[in-house]
């Protein structure tokens, strides 16, 4: 079995790194620079024509988009480890949360990152530096930030409402690994969990997992 993970420090690839750590699947790790020598190099574009990390090559098949990668790793390695539901209703709920966290929560986070000054964006979520500068050059940037914050607040209420149990699917799963990584990134941009007691408690439970604590330098 061959599994190659392409990532970059402080990037969306951190989600996949957390999922791989949780699974404990042996893999080769290739850390790239963002830009022409790394993510935009001809060698990497042959893996992911979008020039974005994370990407994965499993037994010769290239995969990209963090949500797709989490779902793939979950069904391939997670079910037998008790970290991902088998096909059925639980799998469907897993797909809903993972896809939602990328297309709704991280999308709003990306808009906020683009509207924040340099250095306050946390993991930029794929936003180009040029677009950050452009967004900050006029009042539109402030409006965009306000709109993004409102959207994030509404989405975090959805997450809060989904946490009537210890973890999103009941017991801990890769869904929690994935979604908590995105909430952690929002925290780096100043979106705290204080107004959301269920999220705050859940984040504590997620980050006390040995695999995640190690990544955060706490274990
Ligand atoms: N929607 C993608 C976003 C990936 C993404 O934007 N990655 C950024 C880093 S955070 C990247 O690789 N950028 C490389 C570049 O701009 O050259 C995912 O979730 O995988």
Report what the structure shows:
With 219 residues, the protein is α+β, with helices and mostly antiparallel strands. The protein folds into two domains: 3-78, 3-Layer(aba) Sandwich (Glutaredoxin), CATH 3.40.30; 89-209, Glutathione S-transferase Yfyf (Class Pi), Chain A, domain 2, CATH 1.20.1050. 54% of the residues lie in helices and 8% in strands. The chain has helices spanning 13-23, 42-45, 66-78, 89-115, 129-136, 139-162, 174-188, 197-207, 210-215; strands at 3-7, 28-31, 55-58, 61-64. The protein has a four-stranded mixed sheet with strand order 2-1-3-4, with helices on one face. Helix 1 packs parallel to helix 3, helix 3 (66-78) packs antiparallel against helix 4 (89-115) and helix 4 (89-115) runs antiparallel to helix 6. It starts with a strand and ends with a helix. The model is unreliable at 123-132 (pLDDT under 50). The structure holds glutathione.
Roughly how many Å is the radius of gyration? 17 Å
- The domain count comes to 2
| Tally of individual helices | 9
Average pLDDT reading: 92
Largest beta sheet, briefly? Answer: 4 strands, mixed
């Amino acid at each position: 079995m061959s599994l190659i993970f392409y990532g970059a420090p402080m990037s969306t690839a951190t989600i996949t790194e957390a999922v791989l750590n949780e699974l404990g699947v042996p893999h080769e790790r290739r850390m790239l620079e963002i830009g022409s020598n790394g993510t935009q190099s001809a060698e990497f574009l042959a893996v992911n024509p979008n020039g974005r990390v994370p990407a994965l090559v499993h037994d010769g098949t290239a995969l990209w988009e963090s949500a797709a990668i989490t779902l793939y790793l979950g069904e391939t390695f997670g079910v037998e480890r008790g970290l991902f539901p088998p096909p059925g209703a639980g799998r469907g709920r897993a797909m809903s949360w993972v896809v939602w966290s990328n297309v709704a929560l991280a999308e709003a986070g990306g808009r906020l990152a683009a509207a924040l000054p340099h250095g306050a964006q946390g993991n930029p979520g794929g936003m180009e530096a040029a677009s950050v500068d452009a967004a900050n050059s006029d009042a539109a940037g402030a409006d965009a930030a306000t709109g993004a914050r409102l959207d994030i607040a509404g989405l975090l209420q959805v997450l809060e409402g989904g946490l009537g149990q210890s973890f999103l699917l009941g017991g801990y799963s890769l869904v929690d690994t994935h979604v908590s990584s995105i909430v952690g990134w929002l925290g780096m941009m100043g979106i705290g969990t204080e107004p959301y007691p269920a999220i705050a408690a859940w984040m504590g439970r997620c980050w006390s997992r040995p695999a995640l604590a190690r990544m955060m330098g706490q274990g």
